[in-house]
TrEMBL record:
Residues 1-19 form the signal peptide. This is FAD-binding PCMH-type domain-containing protein. Keywords: Oxidoreductase, Signal. InterPro entries: BBE, FAD-bd_PCMH, FAD-bd_PCMH-like_sf, FAD-bd_PCMH_sub2, FAD-linked_Oxidoreductases_BP, Oxid_FAD_bind_N. GO terms for molecular function: FAD binding; oxidoreductase activity. PROSITE patterns: FAD_PCMH (PS51387). Belongs to the oxygen-dependent FAD-linked oxidoreductase family. Residues 155-334 form the FAD-binding PCMH-type domain. It comes from the Eukaryota.
Length: 628
């Protein structure tokens, strides 16, 4: 299956590639690779449906994916073929932090920039390999660590090569190459996933970030839906989706996060949204996908074509079934929005007790209890809210609640203030002043832009975990214990919370219609908490101990209170026990069989993705990927 290994041929490919004979910008964005294109290049040949393990490819010869140093690792001339076929878009990137380390890559100005921008999601979204949760890369090239004695920047869990895909053609070439050479493949869109799914040791990465075509379809018509729709490349990010929709007087269901890669793991994993309490999950809106399969074929998946794949790609998660190239979704006529922001901290009476060692903050928590008690009622009004509780910067022992923002589509300032009045009154009764800053915007787009600050990313001194709290926990007999567990966990930690209710009714779907985690449908609170450790710690034995204690301590408390519920796969604990149930619920067995149908040989892998239990990348997830 190897190319003719003659030196002149390899030389020609290298020359062709470096001369950029295929100009990148002239390449049509709708180019599709066909078997005829690669007839002379077996390393890019198409697979069968991966149902035929006797096809003699390298992929069937080994239990493990190949890594550099293995005799079967692709030769330079094979990499040159991939580079040639992808118009020179194959790159071998340094870690983003390498410019801070002594050596040929050192660059003081860029280092200063990377260091300053570390928590800015644009830095990582704009880099071919960088991810927003560097913990899962192994922390081997943090710019902050370049002054550590004897510390050198290494690749860690970052991919070795990246195809900066411009179209389906490039993606197909990358998938075929990885499958035929039996190397690990990862897919990166922006890198927002909490478990670092868009990274992986010794891998080839396909980057979908540049698939930016977007078109509004004013009158989409099929036998299932008539109305406005948007067709977007999978590289489209939240801010681009919203801007394009707004320009046509529309809004679409996307994340709150400005830079989140809407068309990647976000929508495939379900995708929660400021519009969820009104319109359900992002995945509920999908009319059609264009997808590159594990065998290299470019196909459509909708209700009539590859309908099982279509079902799985609406909630079953990214990096498991194929590489999505484009998505067509329902859009909605834009509506005005009122948003409110406010914050509060401990009462004077709470703070007065600190001297005697009493950090119970009873007033503070009484106000939070009142606010949380409103969640079913507010969600029923179509409200979404996004807020957090963090230790106070200024008063040791206190915590601050920040609402950023309370988001009310179609409501007036007076209506929103009325919804918040009992909270203001309760706070006042507890010696806490809340002044909601409530502002009306004429459109969803303007409200969203004003309401949501850009995400802070790049943290590596905490392990997050999350739980979807169902409405049933608000019943009289369970509410007090539910609140007590939230208070207990968050008093010693932090919380990022969402009042959100993406019910089946809101989404206009039936339970069986797509693969969205059923736990979402009864949820009124998506709660993220985490354990934090000292910023100086790099000892992974110790970090794993913090993680283990968190997973089996505080998070178990939340699991015990919400039996049968789950967690959102994109913002979860990577160590979630029984993650198949937690992230996919009763849909897991069907998802697993669809995985086996479309990707029997395991071309696609990401931690906690469907079928990932069949593989293991070592105890620390940073080693060679092998079948278990
Ligand atoms: C870092 O570089 C980017 C791109 O050149 C620039 O937009 C940004 O302002 C820089 N940031 C800082 C803190 O200098
Ligand atoms: C809380 O709100 C006040 C008034 O709007 C603002 O000045 C302050 O920065 C906010 N504090 C936090 C921690 O967000
Ligand atoms: C729950 O308690 C409230 C007030 O304590 C009461 O009005 C309501 O009827 C109770 N609901 C149920 C279902 O018992
Ligand atoms: C790392 O942490 C573990 C657990 O606390 C400890 O036993 C070990 O000595 C530490 N290793 C180093 C190199 O400090
Ligand atoms: C983990 O929990 C054990 C048992 O409670 C405790 O002894 C240990 O100190 C904890 N480790 C960390 C890193 O918090």
């Amino acid at each position: 299956m190897k190319l003719p290994q003659s030196a002149w041929l390899a030389g020609i490919f290298t020359a062709l590639a470096s001369a950029a004979i295929l100009p990148r910008d002239d390449e049509p964005s709708d180019s599709v690779l066909t078997p005829g294109d690669v007839a002379d290049f077996p390393v890019l040949g198409f697979g069968d449906f991966d149902n035929n393990p006797s096809s003699g490819k390298r992929s069937t010869a080994s239990h493990c994916k190949y890594i550099p140093g293995d005799s079967q690792w692709p030769s330079n001339s094979e990499w040159s073929v991939l580079n040639f076929f992808t118009g020179g878009s194959l790159v071998k990137p340094d870690p983003v932090g390498k410019v801070c380390y002594k050596g040929s890559a050192y660059d003081a100005a860029r280092c200063a920039n990377v260091t300053a921008e570390w928590s800015n999601s644009d830095l990582h979204a704009g880099h071919p390999t960088s991810i927003m949760s560097p913990l899962y890369q192994g922390l081997t090239c943090l710019p902050q660590d370049s002054s550590f004695a004897n510390h050198q920047c290494t690749l860690g869990g970052y991919p070795i090569y990246v195809v900066n895909a411009r179209n389906a053609w490039d993606v197909q070439a990358g998938v075929n190459f990885a499958r035929n050479t039996n190397i690990r493949l990862v897919i990166k869109n922006t890198g927002h996933d909490f478990a670092g799914k868009s990274s992986g040791s010794y891998s080839l990465s396909i980057r979908t970030h540049m698939l930016k075509d977007i078109a509004v379809i004013k009158n989409y018509k099929s036998k299932y839906y008539s109305g406005p729709a948007i067709k977007a490349g999978s590289g489209i990010q939240g801010f681009e989706l919203y801007a394009a929709a707004h320009a046509a007087g529309l809004m679409a269901v996307g994340g709150e996060g400005m830079t989140v890669g809407w068309g990647g793991g976000y929508i495939q994993g379900g995708g929660h949204s400021p519009l969820s309490s009104l319109h359900g999950m992002a995945a509920d809106q999908v009319l059609s996908y264009e997808v590159v399969l594990a065998n290299g074929c470019f196909v459509t998946a909708d209700k009539d074509t590859n309908s099982d794949l279509f079902w799985a790609l609406r909630g079953g998660g990214g990096s498991a079934f194929g590489v999505v190239i484009s998505i067509t979704v329902k859009a909605f006529t834009e509506r005005p929005v009122t948003i409110s922001t406010f914050n509060f901290t401990a009462s004077a009476a709470d703070v007065a007790k600190y001297d005697s060692g009493d950090y119970s903050n009873d007033d503070f928590w009484a106000v939070i209890k009142h606010y949380l008690s409103l969640f079913p009622e507010h969600a029923d009004q179509g409200i979404y809210s996004y807020w957090n509780i963090f230790p106070s910067y200024t008063v040791k022992g206190a915590q601050t609640f920040t609402m950023q923002p309370y988001f009310a589509v179609g409501k007036t300032v007076a209506q929103v203030n009325a919804l918040l009045q009992s909270l203001v009154d309760t706070a006042s009764a507890h010696g806490i002043t809340i002044h909601p800053n409530t502002v009306h915007y004429p459109s969803f787009y303007e409200g969203w832009k004003a309401g949501f600050p850009k995400e802070t990313v790049g943290l590596y001194t905490s392990q997050p975990g999350s739980r979807l709290f169902p409405r049933a926990n608000w019943a009289n007999d369970t509410w007090d214990t539910t609140f007590d567990a939230i208070r207990q966990v968050v008093s010693a930690s932090f919380m990022i919370g969402f009042n959100i209710a993406p019910s089946l009714t809101a989404g206009g779907v039936t339970e069986d219609e797509n693969a969205v985690n059923p736990a979402w449908r009864n949820t009124v609170l998506h709660a993220i908490a985490g354990v934090m450790w000292d910023a100086s710690i790099r000892n992974f034995t110790l970090i794993r101990e913090y993680q283990r204690n968190f997973t089996h301590g505080p998070m178990q408390l939340w699991r015990d209170l919400t039996p049968g519920s789950g967690a959102y796969l994109g913002e979860a604990d990577i160590n979630e026990p029984d993650w198949q149930q937690a992230f996919y619920g009763c849909k897991y067995s069907k998802l697993y069989s669809i995985k086996k149908k479309y990707d029997l040989s395991g071309v696609f892998f990401a931690e906690t993705a469907v079928g990932s239990e069949d593989w293991k990348a070592g105890n620390d997830r940073l080693g060679r990927l092998c079948r278990v």
